[in-house]
Structure formats: structure tokens, C-alpha cells
């Protein structure tokens, strides 16, 4: 029984080696068939696709040869010293997946038409080839989709980070004085962001004075008024003097109704007058930097 099992194993290994050799011998023909498809041919970076499909066939060869045809192998066929997010800028995920399916179909067609006669493959052996292909394609597509999800999350995080910066812009007017022009509605989430962003930036840039220009804020509710008060108190604790400009009457009423005391906060009608209170004129200041 053991001898029979060993013989079956040797036969399967021999078959696998034949598959490997045949695939590599016909590599360019396989890839050319795939690249000739209309949806692939019209792709904007066919060279990148051709390289990826070549890497896929080589990985299929290596994994068959070393009997590592499982989805735990760290070897990738997608990238060559580049990130998947940058790859997606040149190659679409749909084109990748369609191309892999075309390669799979081409290999299967090739074996049905040629390898059966050439190698005398039985129906069971042909099914074995089919199973190997299916498994490898599933692993490859899983890799593509996982990397696509990771790349999407990474881009989303970068977008949110940039959006947060734009939501609370802090622009240096001098090395120690900056202005934070707030525009649009301030909700609770943006109020929290305002506190975190201003504290971090003021500490990082060693600012001594910060002007909050609220002329672009139509209204605030009680919760946001409370957040603004917390921001002012927190900045005061790290030695940053706050000036509020452009405060609308309805915002002033909300602040008063909340019982918030801005006694130690300088209030000015607009940014130029706030700068004058610091002994500066707007035309004399020079924008030193921004986190935009």
C-alpha cells in the first residue's frame, strides 16, 4: 500500500513538473493571448499588466515546484518595489482580475487541446490541473482584493488627515503669531478636532499668539461654544494668548447664554485690528508657513 501511495505521489510530482515546463514554454503565447483581449488591450499601461501577468506565471511555477500552493505564502506577484496604491494609479483592479481569469482560461484551453495528447493526461489528471489553476487564481484574486482594501483604507486615512488640516487651517503671520480662519459650520466633531489641532500646532510651532477669525462661521450651538471655551482655556495653559475676531451677534448670544467668560480673551472686530493690537500692520506681516 505504501509503495502504491509513493508511486502515486511520484506520478503527481512528475505531472506537476510537466505542467510547469509546459506553462513556461508557452509563457509568451499565453500572455499575448490575454493582452490581445479588447478590455485589456485598451488599458492605459499594458506594459505594467504584461509584467504582472508574467510574475503571476512565474509564481505559479515556483509554488508548484516547491509544493507551496497555499494562501499563506508571503511571495507576491503584484508589485516590484512599489506600493499597491501607486500601482493602482497605473493599473485598474478590474483589468488585473480579468487578466488573471483570461490566463487561467488560456492555460486550461491549452491543456485540453495540446497537453492531453502530448502528455497522455487522463481525465483525473486534467481535473488536477484545473484544481491547481482554480486554487492559484483564488489566491491571486484574494491578494488583489486584500491589497485593494488596504490601499483604500490608507487613501481614506490620508484624505481624512488632509481634510482635518483644511478644516482647521493655522497660518503663520510671523514666527510667533498665527491666524486660524474658521469657515462654515462647526459641529461637535469639528469642535473636538479644533482642540486637538490647535494644541498640537501651537506647541509644535511654539506660537505665543493665535487669532481665531470666526467671521466665516454662521452659528454655533451650546456644545460647540463649550468646546471653543475649552480650546481657549487649554491654549492659555500652554502660554498662547488668544484673540477672537469676526464674532457674530448670534454667536455672542450663545456664548453669553452658556455662561462662558471670555474675560481674559482679547476680542477684535477683524484680523487687521487684532494685528494692530499686537503692534503690527497687516501689510508688514509675512506669511511664514501653513499646514495647508
UniProtKB/TrEMBL annotation:
It comes from Salipaludibacillus neizhouensis. The keyword Nucleotide-binding does not apply. PANTHER family: RSBT ANTAGONIST PROTEIN RSBS-RELATED (PTHR33745), RSBT CO-ANTAGONIST PROTEIN RSBRC (PTHR33745:SF3). It comes from the Bacteria. InterPro entries: Bact_StressResp_Reg, STAS_dom, STAS_dom_sf. Residues 167-278 form the STAS domain. SUPFAM superfamilies: SpoIIaa-like. Pfam families: STAS. Keywords: Phosphoprotein. The keyword Secreted does not apply. CDD domains: STAS_RsbR_RsbS_like (cd07041). This is STAS domain-containing protein.
Amino acid at each position: 500500500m505504501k509503495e502504491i501511495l509513493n508511486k502515486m505521489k511520484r506520478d503527481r510530482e512528475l505531472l506537476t513538473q510537466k505542467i510547469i515546463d509546459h506553462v513556461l514554454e508557452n509563457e509568451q503565447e499565453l500572455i499575448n493571448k490575454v493582452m490581445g483581449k479588447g478590455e485589456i488591450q485598451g488599458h492605459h499601461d499594458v506594459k505594467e499588466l504584461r509584467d504582472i501577468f508574467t510574475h503571476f506565471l512565474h509564481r505559479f511555477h515556483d509554488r508548484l515546484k516547491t509544493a507551496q500552493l497555499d494562501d499563506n505564502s508571503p511571495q507576491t506577484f503584484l508589485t516590484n518595489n512599489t506600493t499597491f496604491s501607486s500601482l493602482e494609479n497605473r493599473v485598474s483592479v478590474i483589468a488585473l482580475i480579468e487578466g488573471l481569469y483570461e490566463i487561467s482560461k488560456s492555460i486550461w484551453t491549452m491543456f485540453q487541446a495540446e497537453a492531453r495528447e502530448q502528455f497522455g493526461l487522463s481525465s483525473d489528471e486534467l481535473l488536477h490541473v484545473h484544481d491547481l489553476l482554480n486554487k492559484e487564481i483564488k489566491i491571486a484574486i484574494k491578494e488583489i482584493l486584500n491589497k485593494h482594501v488596504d490601499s483604500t483604507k490608507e487613501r481614506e486615512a490620508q484624505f481624512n488627515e488632509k481634510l482635518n488640516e483644511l478644516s482647521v487651517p493655522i497660518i503663520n503671520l510671523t514666527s510667533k503669531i498665527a491666524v486660524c480662519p474658521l469657515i462654515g459650520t462647526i459641529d461637535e466633531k469639528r469642535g473636538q478636532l479644533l482642540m486637538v489641532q490647535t494644541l498640537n500646532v501651537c506647541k509644535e510651532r511654539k506660537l505665543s499668539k493665535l487669532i481665531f477669525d470666526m467671521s466665516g462661521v454662521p452659528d454655533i450651538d451650546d456644545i460647540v461654544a463649550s468646546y471653543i471655551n475649552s480650546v481657549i482655556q487649554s491654549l492659555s495653559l500652554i502660554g498662547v494668548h488668544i484673540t477672537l475676531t469676526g464674532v457674530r451677534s448670534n454667536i455672542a448670544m450663545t456664548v453669553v447664554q452658556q455662561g462662558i467668560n471670555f474675560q481674559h480673551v482679547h476680542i477684535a472686530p477683524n484680523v487687521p485690528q487684532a494685528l494692530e493690537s499686537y503692534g503690527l500692520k497687516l501689510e508688514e506681516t509675512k506669511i511664514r508657513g501653513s499646514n495647508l
